[in-house]
Amino acid sequence: MAEMTYREALNQALKEEMRKDQRIIVLGEEVAFYQGAYKVTQGLLAEFGYERVKDTPISEEIIIGAAIGAAMGGLRPIAEMMTVNFSLLAMDQIVNNAAKIHYMFGGQAKVPVVIRAAQGAGKQLGAQHSQHLEAYFMHCPGLRVVLPATPADAKGLLKAAVRDDNPVIFLEDQGLYTTKGDVPSGDYIIPLGKANIIKAGEDITVISYSKMILDCIEAAKELENYNINAEIIDLRCLNPLDKETIFESVKKTGLAIVVNEAWRTGSAAAEISCLIMENCFDYLDAPIERISAMDIPMPYNKELEQAALPHKKNIVDAALKLLQVNKS
Amino acid sequence: MIKIYESFEKSELKNLYRQMYLIRKFEETSAEMYLRGKISGFTHLYTGEEAVAVGVISALFDKDYVVSSYRDHGHALAKGASSKAVMAELFGKDTGMCHGLGGSMHLFDQNLRFMGGYAIVGGGIPIAAGLGLSIKCKDEDVICACFFGDGAVNQGAFHESLNLAKLWNLPVLFICENNLYAMGTDVARASAVTEISKRAEAYNIPGEAANGMDILEVKEVTAKAAKKVRKGEGPYLLEFKTYRYRAHSMADPDRYRTLEEEEVWKERDPIETFARYLIETGIFEPDELKEIKESVDIEIQDAVKFADESPNPNSELLTEFIYVE
Prior knowledge:
By secondary structure, chain A is an alpha/beta fold. Chain A has helices spanning 6-20, 44-48, 60-72, 91-98, 101-104, 134-138, 151-163, 212-224, 243-253, 268-280, 302-308, 312-322; strands spanning 2-5, 24-28, 53-55, 76-83, 114-119, 144-146, 168-173, 180-183, 196-199, 204-208, 230-234, 237-239, 256-263, 289-293. The longest helix of chain A has 15 residues, at 6-20. Chain A starts with a strand and ends in a 6-residue tail after the last helix. Chain B has one domain (12-249, 260-309): Rossmann fold, CATH 3.40.50. Chain B is an alpha/beta fold. Helices cover 43% and strands 11% of the residues of chain B. Chains A and B meet through helix 3, helix 4 and helix 5 of A and helix 5 and helix 6 of B.
């Protein structure tokens, strides 16, 4: 166990897996000589050489297409999309090829590709660089969708993603790269599709993933002042989705708040809310609260951007409302 | 004017003829089965273009990869797929190449290294570059041939793939089947540069155009290009000028071409001209070709019977292959 940043944990996972499996290659924009736009691939070129760590042109479609083809030829590529916003240029390869090849070819071919991408908002990067697109990927059968919230999870989930035989979309919130935490050393694997109960509680269930987990933890601390004991579930993955853990918790508490930083309409939070309604309706004591960003292109202005995003305060307010507690 | 190709063995010439005729017969039968309601969906037939698939693939080794588009029946058959497995896939049956989950546009056979039909125009070209990357990383003595039409060359995927293939010196043979029409739009209405082979120059790749209606020319040109690619000289772009006799798909009323144009191209029919060549040069007796045709006719009849009598995929297959567990 060692304390390190989320970025360092990802880097460690990459290095450990590449040492173990010669079939792994890394490709993407600025991943080799520049050592990664977010420095996640730092040191990879020096250790593994240009044969396995490859800078590409700014051509997202061929980055993903080449990764898919290389995987079909027996490699295990890890492709980096510098930010998820650019992955939209590769959507044909992701949705029409990666997600469908195993199925439409009758189970003969597999596509063990990890597509890593930074995403997220809150850094005044404007409308085109501040998106959360997990719902796009979650919508498409055939893709795994993974969003670690902590440094330990970043390592354990990335290693699991690299060893998975399916295409995995691995989304790293850019606001998390410098966060620190204890990370187990060596072969630390977190199986995909196992949610993490970050904090057990019996009064209300708060479900989230990725960076909003940090807000959920802060909100839960504040709720303790009101003698409210919230249970926080970090989903870790949207596909496979650990429905059992969600349902078990909601059946216990009878109240649910679903939080994501993405747009509200058609969001992961919308899907999860619907699943709770379909599976736990008789256990619910109040309607589900859904917390998300506003449905707008992200403004540049700092105050307007913050106004568009969900915060700890929204979670606290929602919990107090559901439990009919007056705010002090 | 008959060009004599002395380098070809008689058995090889027989195979080329048989394969082209097999594809022709298969496609004509597919059309019939489509009209009879046995085959559904989009069905893009390869009739008229047989010399390209057979000429190119016969110039490759079995271990070489082939990537195709949605007009993939001919490529799959030329790569060695059985007419039964292809027909059964078109019928949507469990005995088809992909258990009836793929259909006409998504044929695939891992063992034959037939790496799939991709139905988004140009969408298979990056896959071919990726297979080239795997060949290079694993240092295999293999190349990847990638077929696409004239419509695909205006997609970004084509340009991104050629650029990367040259940049990384990948062993990919890019094959454009220029049948003059991207669905209903002729090349001149879609491409600023209509000589597609010239586009290779933009990426410092050798590009060459040839007559796609002449099986021996296709094979010879491909063999030369493949040799260079195999030697590690990087990618190569070949453009074969050809013509599809049928509409874009069985759902296309085909109202954008003139009968006169169709007649001109049918006079260059790859199978008829090759048959004439084989007989006029004295290599084959007319009866020998007749025998080949008869054996193919029986094979295709058997394929239809096999497909028709095969079971539908089990309902468990509905969710079997979404993920690798």
